[in-house]
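If you are new to this repository, start here. Below is one unmodified record pulled from the training split, so you can see the exact layout before writing a loader.
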Amino acid sequence: MRERRLKSIRRAVVAEPAPALILRGHPHLYQINTWAWLERLSRAAGRQIKLADVADAEWDRIRGFGIDLVYLLGVWQRSPAGRYMCRTDPDAFRRFDQALPDWTLDCVVGSAFSIRNYVLDQRIGTWTELDAVRAKLNARGMRLILDFVPNHTGPDHVWVAKYPQYFVQGSEADYRREPAAFHLVESKTKPRCFIARGRDPYFAPWADTAQIDHFNPDARAAFIDVLRKLAKHCDGLRCDMAMLVLNDVFAQTWSGLLGDRAPPEREFWSEAIPALPRDFIWLAEVYWDMESRLQNLGFQFTYDKQLYDHLLGGAVQEVRQQLSADVGYQSRMARFLENHDEKRSVVAFGRERIRGIAALTTTLPGLRFFHDGQFEARSIHLPVQLNAAAEEQPDRDLAQIYAKILDIANNAAFHEGDWKLLGVEADSDDSHLHLLGYRWRTALDYWLIVVNLGATSAHGRLRIADELATHETYEFTDMLNDASYSHRRADLLANGLYVRLDRYCAHIFYVRGQVC
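And here is the target side for that same chain:
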């Protein structure tokens, strides 16, 4: 009887699929390492699979997760020079050994972020084939997201020989002082030059990159032309390290090589974003508390690395503070547990914690960012220079938990409703400090989520009676744990809703009123 009631509730509240090309609020993004994914599909098929050969059933499978945005990482032509560096770097070998113990040099295809040209790599496909895939995604109500790397190119990008002035350059003295920070470029037709390798100011230069000079208006214009071309073939871009090209960041990073050159009057993004269609989707990888600044420049979504770090460190009060920000700001944050840069979540957080934190990050406001293999609890982190990782068996129990959470999060209230962080009061001790509670509400539906982020059981009380439509009794159906509880309004008013959770567990309640 109870199972039939739970199934009835699920049917009653499941949202209809989003219409094609209408991006719903708080969308779901699915990141795929394209080359490795195609290799995996090829092994299963017993033949080489390119993008055009991906079966409709695979796109249907991804859509079945409730995905709105498919982010195909690494479709562009990779730098042969960068690939050579990866194939001759002993430090990289250790990472390759961990991901693919039987790797060969042919498996090292170069970094997806060391780009020779913004055309499709021949292993991936052609423009026409990419357009056909985009059409398939659009027909299923999904949009296509691709990469854009504004800070740098590969060291053999087509501009290096033709337009070396597009890149930050040093003198021979600079090169002699720090040779690892520059590429020596020599040709028979142009003077010798020393092009800087791209960098984050807090780390050593990336050996397989060449640094774009963002104080050069011609370089900016050339990149905007690239963006216009890309926009004809996709619905949005994930912009790598987007804060590095801000005028002040760029000036600080490269002050020793810029001399007394003044910054441009406008930010690069202030020029680039208006140059593309208004409905184009912009996602920024951004750190250093610059998320709001990038949002103000036009990015719809920005990485929420702070939330990830707080969750990873078990800093519950910092998580609560992060979730206390304006909901409009939070709705533009990209919440994730893993991506191509981070460790696999089951390794980083531990298997036991996945249930609770997955319930949390999949039901918060913002862009919900998922990574291929996350739902199956893959544990091997794949370096972006490799074309494959070792085979793993999926964790069926965690896959079922993800399936349930995703099914819940695809209800309309989690995309169209009003979100609010709730206070959790003490019951008899201070364990309530480990609990986070919030709700999604529409005119018809009320969902309550409570998560225990602590390493011990926790209990507390939530004052929600005033938020509920007036009924004598309410049924709280925990859709995550397949349980149901009844509470009288008088008790909720007097005492609040009592909750108790084992460590790292969560409730996702669908609340319905009943008349006794």
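Two things worth knowing about this chain: The radius of gyration is 25 Å. Residues 418-514 form a domain with the Immunoglobulin-like fold (CATH 2.60.40.1180).
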